[in-house]
């Protein structure tokens, strides 16, 4: 992908800084013409439900919300009682970046962190934690587990790893939720079907992200365990996330899923991250951390390189994880020219 008609973009802080795909904006404009029944009784919402059932190869229930935090917290609220434990990795988004929303929407359920390499929960440790103090009235009780796909470190759960987590959940008699804020990025990196990455691997509910991958503001809760749907419908309304003009959320997701836009966007973001990783790995003093699989790259850069990039106007996180540790995130709109422009500046310092 090239874009010679604009100056190279300098932002690599997050995929949230990107705009929306033209197809999504066009769908919003089209949806604003005429009238449509409110609260999800419109043809756009019906189309999204059909598309997602086709994509996941089974009938699913779908609830649209405007943010990923709402999708995660509301979904988890139907999967745990207030005295329940939600097992997640310490670096997960629900544990670090949602301002206590899961506890708020669950009326007090507890996030219990489970360790594992590359920001992925270890199945054996999950099972051990979920079997602790079961039935003890003095302790919160196992309720569900949540995995982030792709993780906050840019790693991706393989199908075998998801199945191992699911097996642990089955052994502990708890449900499995997937925080898929970057689901499309993970999906194209694994070259598998959406069904294989979710319900066929044992996932009960998915927060399907779209905002980070070309949508203006819309996410989808996809329920494979359809017994959760009625309760979640009431919870969404009670939380203030049932849009009266739901067609404007649905039109975005409908365009996102049409003609494989969501997959094309994810492939471009991933390809840009791969190009960035390969280019940085060739430079003296640069250490690539982990094995970036999606669109997030963690690395350790020499301090003079960090300073030179910042002075040149590039934006990225560099002061959160220790000396010299940098995170770059590419988006669907990140071009190879954007990446090469950054690499050129980095090479100038490296020489």
UniProtKB/TrEMBL annotation:
<dbReference type="InterPro" id="IPR015421">
    <property type="entry name" value="PyrdxlP-dep_Trfase_major"/>
</dbReference>
<keyword id="KW-0663">Pyridoxal phosphate</keyword>
<dbReference type="InterPro" id="IPR001597">
    <property type="entry name" value="ArAA_b-elim_lyase/Thr_aldolase"/>
</dbReference>
<dbReference type="InterPro" id="IPR026273">
    <property type="entry name" value="Low_specificity_L-TA_bact"/>
</dbReference>
<keyword id="KW-0456">Lyase</keyword>
<comment type="subunit">
    <text>Homotetramer.</text>
</comment>
<dbReference type="GO" id="GO:0008732">
    <property type="term" value="F:L-allo-threonine aldolase activity"/>
</dbReference>
<feature type="domain" description="Aromatic amino acid beta-eliminating lyase/threonine aldolase">
    <location>
        <begin position="12"/>
        <end position="296"/>
    </location>
</feature>
<dbReference type="InterPro" id="IPR015422">
    <property type="entry name" value="PyrdxlP-dep_Trfase_small"/>
</dbReference>
<dbReference type="InterPro" id="IPR015424">
    <property type="entry name" value="PyrdxlP-dep_Trfase"/>
</dbReference>
<dbReference type="Pfam" id="PF01212">
    <property type="entry name" value="Beta_elim_lyase"/>
</dbReference>
<comment type="function">
    <text>Catalyzes the cleavage of L-allo-threonine and L-threonine to glycine and acetaldehyde.</text>
</comment>
<protein>
    <recommendedName>
        <fullName>L-threonine aldolase</fullName>
        <ecNumber>4.1.2.48</ecNumber>
    </recommendedName>
</protein>
<comment type="similarity">
    <text>Belongs to the threonine aldolase family.</text>
</comment>
<dbReference type="GO" id="GO:0006567">
    <property type="term" value="P:L-threonine catabolic process"/>
</dbReference>
